[in-house]
Amino acid sequence: MTRIIEKNRKQLKEAIRIYRYEQGHGYDETIKHFEKEFGRKMARKVYNELRDEMQDKEQKKFIADLDSDSWGCIPPLSEATTTPFSKIVDGGDCYRYIRMDEPGLTVSDGMVGIKLSQPTKTVSGSRVKLVVGLPDLHLPYKPETALAPSAKAAIKWCQDNKPDEIVLMGDFMSFKCISHWDAMYPGRKKNDFLSRDIQHGNYVLDMLQGITSKITYLRGNHEAWLDQYRDKDPQARDGIYELESVFRIYDRRIDLIPENVEYRVGKSMFVHGHRVGMYHARWTADDFGENVFYGHTHDIQSHSKSKRAGSEPIIAHSCGCLCDENPDYLRNKPNRWAAGFLIMYGRDDGSFTYYVPQIVGGRFIGLNGKEYAG
Prior knowledge:
single chain, alpha/beta, 20 strands, 32% helix
């Protein structure tokens, strides 16, 4: 029986390889094609095994090319990317990419691609993991511009410091063009298009995957707007308006975390956030009772929860935002919004040290004394 199952598995894998990679069908189409006979769970499992095998082969070939000083093109970070990149070799072990049509990005602002020989960060013999949290990017910044200046500054810091993981802390996208708040005001959406917003999102994901291979995406309340938009149209249930499809989440091997579900990193957790108001950090600390980092409120606030003497601290910290701090709908009203992001160095035992640099006017100074400007 085991041999029969294994034989069927190999046959399914070969059939998926032909259907997906030789005939060029998309992920959702491939799964639907094979789930009728093999079941969705089996089809997805075998597909993921095949994808991993093929990506491992590409990576080994890429490393071999580097070892032989053959500087060919880097393997695509995701399929069918529509963003126009130029490749510039920069140094001995990394690629540098420039998006030629992004306003405000010059050759000196280029996006650093995969760097294979990263030094291992250690403290007293134990490895230190660098995790960066990017809260509330609300892409796009403007109809023709993906990133706000604060987001550009944060990403430039990431290029320099090569985090082991980047956590998108919710509301990566704005989805203003399908906002239920503007449903009665179509004039507000005349320059907004869902297809263009999705292209901006894929461009930024490509950029981030050029910095680190580990991306975790927390769904926020704005991602839920896409679900609401899909649910209004019975014909839109074929995956065309699903976050997993428009951003090729499975192909990219991005971990997608459901809304309001915490993502744990050592002795801390990341959530998008659900509290608002003057004392949201205190309420969030009470809600979770553990170290928690979040976005949603667009401001920077911290609260240390009462604890037993001698026990470890419990902190809730909102990390600001990386979007337009004066959007049109606020009409220049005073607000508490502040640009920032999370830098966390974690130890093997789960303990950590963190910083939330505040970005003012698209600029901040890192702990290394270097200024980063968007």
